[in-house]
Design goal:
The chain is of the alpha/beta class and about 375 residues long. It has 10 helices and 16 strands. The protein has a 7-stranded mixed sheet with strand order 3-4-5-6-7-8-9, with helices on one face. A 5-stranded mixed sheet has the order 10-11-12-13-14, with no helix packed on it. A two-stranded antiparallel sheet has the order 1-2. Helix 4 runs antiparallel to helix 5 and helix 7 (about 235-250) runs antiparallel to helix 8. The longest helix has 20 residues, at about 265-285. It comes from Nocardioides imazamoxiresistens.
Length: about 375
């Protein structure tokens, strides 16, 4: 069964089916559309709150993508629980990708909702505000470092993205600091820093109710992309695995993901994700040789199976081949950090780390 068809226990229907599905007392899951995306939807969570002025309010965990169909479905879903868009007082955003952040900004413009985002997302957000060309040039440089020249050219030549990619990049009202507590009436959410998928990703743990609003950090049926963000960086996979270990140290909470059905155990899924990346690390090491000129990340990616269907790298479309090359580079960098491989980047002296020549990896 594909992720899109997976049934969620809160609805007993495919998880992306529209509605406001009850997760726990005062908490509803609202899937919002992602047109032309294989994931089909993003889960936005509506949390009912008693506001300081005595009124009833709604706090959203993630906002969705700022497109008309998502705005309409959010309004109708909230109406199904006796609320309206005007009741949304704040949006707690797990990370700065457009399908989580841009509608939060739209809601601020529409009804004055407060937007909160992890401090670690500031660099990427400011790059997005600066414009798509800044983001494009950064990604192209990193794709060339990975040896993915074809993907880099496709990225350079791609037409501008949807209007939401430029019109709704604004700074939040408040930055969430690492491990900050968010108080929503009697409910307390711990904003746990979980860098990896992005530099400033956070999850929200409601330990009293046994809930983990996991964003894209822990997904129930797929593995999230690693470090695929405007401020592309080295070390993202090491950060991600460390963040998984941190979630493993929390009480075992019910998994409320941004994409896919609810799952009963965050710990069980964390264990599966860690095992997956251990397997990918081993597979990434196999093609490397001792000595020689070494292999680029793209060349290593060509040796690996992709997706649950074990597709060849050569069969991937430009976007997914870029993701695959960058993910492979992330695994190779972990192997370097562990002393199992060495890298030559920008010349033998290590200068010009993102120069014209791609990085090459060799086994130790």
């Amino acid at each position: 069964m594909s992720t899109a068809d997976a049934v969620s226990p809160d609805s007993d229907r495919p998880w992306a089916d529209p509605g406001a599905w009850p997760v726990a007392p005062g908490v509803h899951r609202i899937p919002l559309p992602l047109p032309n995306d294989g994931l089909r939807a993003v889960n936005v969570y509506a949390v009912e709150t008693d506001e300081p002025d005595g009124s009833r309010g709604i706090t959203l965990v993630d906002g969705g993508w700022a497109i008309e169909s998502a705005a309409e479905l959010l309004a109708s879903s909230l109406a199904g629980i006796g609320a309206g868009v005007a009741d949304v007082r704040r949006v707690l955003v797990t990370h700065v990708h457009r399908d989580h952040y841009t509608q939060a900004v739209a809601l601020r413009r529409l009804v004055g909702a407060e937007v909160r985002l992890g401090r670690g997302e500031e660099t990427s957000l400011r790059m997005s505000i600066a414009g798509s060309e800044v983001v494009r040039d950064e990604m192209v440089a990193h794709l060339r470092d990975a040896g993915a020249e074809q993907a880099a050219v496709a990225w350079e030549q791609a037409p501008p993205g949807p209007t939401a990619d430029t019109d709704f990049w604004e700074l939040p009202d408040r930055w969430l600091e690492p491990d900050e507590q968010v108080r929503l009436g009697d409910r307390v959410l711990d904003a746990v820093a979980t860098p990896g998928h992005t530099a400033g990703h956070v999850v929200f743990a409601d330990t009293a109710e046994g809930l983990l609003f996991a964003g894209d950090h822990v997904l129930p049926t797929i593995t999230p992309s690693i470090g695929f963000e405007p401020s592309t960086r080295f070390g993202a996979l090491g950060d991600f695995m460390g963040s998984l270990a941190r979630v493993r140290e929390l009480p075992d909470l019910r998994l409320l993901p941004a994409h896919g059905p609810l799952a009963p155990s965050a710990h069980a899924r964390v264990d599966e994700l860690l095992a997956h990346h251990d397997e990918r690390l081993a597979l990434s090491l196999e093609p490397l040789e001792v000595g020689g000129e070494g292999l680029t990340a793209r060349e290593v990616a060509a040796h690996l199976p992709w997706t649950r269907h074990a597709r060849a790298y050569s069969s991937l479309d430009p976007f997914n081949s870029a993701l695959a090359a960058m993910e492979t580079r992330a695994h190779l960098e972990v192997l370097v950090a562990r002393g199992q491989a060495v890298v030559e980047r920008g010349g033998a002296d290590g200068s010009d780390p993102l120069g014209a020549a791609p990085a090459r990896y060799r086994r130790v």
